[in-house]
Amino acid sequence: MIRIFLTGYMGAGKTTLGKAFARKLNLPFVDLDWYMEERFHKTVGELFVERGEAGFRELEKNMLHEVGAFENVVISTGGGAPCFFDNMDFMNRNGKTVFLNVHPDMLFRRLRVAKQQRPILQGKQDDELKEFIIRALEKRAPFYSQAQYVFNADELEDRSQIEKSVEKLRDLLKL
């Protein structure tokens, strides 16, 4: 039985690498955010506003436990999911956890072009965005560092890099 949890900051490539990796292993791919949106017919942003952060994080934990019972699956968590409740312990007990580590400069480049799709980043100037990313990574590091594996996900910019990363991840996890 294979159950892999991909964790990391927004823009780390959890969905990009996760989809390609699951396809290579011929496994289903579940993006936790998409799963929640499909289940509740609302965007993650709407759920967050409607329930507040505490209510959203409780819902996210419940959905993580639900998808964490699936077998033979690759799961991409939300960037904040590992940082609340016992979510990292739960993932470590129930599967292989991989922290997609990305240099802050690379995250900045990726998120800078995706600001409009991410409400928490909208309206931030470049220097504010860089500082926001660095501070968030510092806060989340104690949680991300609990992952069983650390994978450098700086190189996911084109199909060739994604394919190479899939093979490197496969080697790392011995699959």
Secondary structure: elements and pairs:
Elements: E1 3-7, H1 14-25, E2 29-31, H2 32-40, H3 44-67, E3 73-76, H4 87-94, E4 96-101, H5 104-112, H6 126-144, E5 149-152, H7 159-173
Parallel strand pairs: 1-3, 1-4, 2-3, 4-5
Helix pairs in contact: 1-7, 2-3, 5-6
Subunit structure: Monomer.
GO molecular function, one term: shikimate kinase activity
EC number: 2.7.1.71
Describe the structure.
- This protein is α/β, with parallel strands linked by helices and 175 residues long.
- It has a single domain (3-173), classed as P-loop containing nucleotide triphosphate hydrolases (Rossmann fold), CATH 3.40.50.300.
- Helix content is 55%, strand content 13%.
- It is built from 7 helices and 5 strands; from the N terminus they run βαβααβαβααβα.
- It has helices at residues 14-25, 32-40, 44-67, 87-94, 104-112, 126-144, 159-173; strands spanning 3-7, 29-31, 73-76, 96-101, 149-152.
- It has a 5-stranded parallel β-sheet.
- Helix 2 (32-40) crosses helix 3 (44-67).
- It is globular, with a radius of gyration of 15 Å.
- The termini are close together.
- The mean pLDDT is 96.
